[in-house]
Amino acid sequence: MKKTEREKMLLFSKERVVGPNRYRLYFTPVSSLRDETPRVFRLLVRTPFTFNKFDMGRVYKLTYRKVHVLKFLPKEEFKLREEHFVKLLQTRDLKFMDKKTSAALRSMDKPYFSKDRYYSFVETKDIVNYRTDFLTTVAVSTFSIVLTGIAYLLPFCMYSLMIFLLIRDQMDLVGFSSRALVLPIMGIGALPITLYVMSVLFSLSELVLLRIDFTKWSVLKKYTLSWGGMRKSIFFEISDIRFLRKFGIVAASALVICIIISLII
Questions:
Q1: Which of 15, 181, 200, 237 would bridge 24 by S-S if both were Cys, CB 3.0 to 4.6 A apart?
Q2: Distance of CA 227 to the CA centre of its chain
């Protein structure tokens, strides 16, 4: 397969997604910035080590086959103007996102990226190019795993304890008894509230990580790489509050109904 070489390719965006082809790099030829619709290339690298060597806002000489980068040579940094950055993001999403969302964007009279929803070029560059030493990375990862583990394990342990107590209470039952139905009823009824508590604790743990300078930039970098430059709020957003409120009402209602049924039988 023939190799392709290109000079003066500006890296304006990076993405790290779940699944195949997860390390994505978005380039545009510097000469294309003057065009009404700039040319955008999405290239891939195979390892996180190679991915981390690329700096957003830098010009590269690239050698690639199909869409996989084989060799690269970093050149000078490029001061990208904000209006060019917005246009590049629009072109990126219109070209590479799923067809349904892309069609919705094309139908808009003036598709734009609000500064309230997306980071500026300077902000994105500072976040995505943020690096830590090995020991700091290990410490941040450990602290994050501990907080996330507490968020998931605490509700699960409480749920497991309830199941254990119900099983122990029913061990002396002989033959068929309506009390035997309490275990499956409460097991089903307590599951939604358990998931709800997990969701709340996980959201709170994420906010805690964003409020601590030691972990803030690592969390922001992970989020920005996953969501293509969208802002990450350090507070609960209105949509999050509405979702948790509805989820909480449904989960609490299910638990109360199951408790009442269990008391009746």
A1: 15
A2: 6
CA distance 220 to 67: 27
In sequence order, the 6+-apart residues with CB closer than 8 A to the CB of 118 are: 89, 229, 230, 231
Query: What confidence tens digit (pLDDT) does each residue in 64-108 have?
Result: 999 999 999 999 999 999 989 989 998 898 888 766 555 555 555
Tokens of 122: 């300077």
Residue by residue, DSSP assigns 89-140 as HHHHHHHHS-HHHHHHHHTSSS----TTTB--HHHHHHHHT----HHHHHHH
Spatial separation of the C-alpha atoms in residues 260 and 134, rounded to whole Å: 54
Closest by alpha carbon to 39, among 78, 96, 98? 96
Q: Which amino acid makes up residue 67?
A: V
d(CA 263, CA 255): 12
- The per-residue pLDDT for range 10-49, each reduced to its tens digit, is 999 999 988 888 999 999 999 999 888 899 999 999 999 9
R_g of the chain, CA atoms, integer Å? 25
- Helix H, strand E, coil C: the string for 192-258 is HHHHHHHHHHHHHHHHHHHHCHHHHHHHHHHHHHHHCCECCCCCCCHHHHHHHHHHHHHHHHHHHHH
Are the C-beta atoms of 110 and 87 separated by less than 8 Å?
A: no
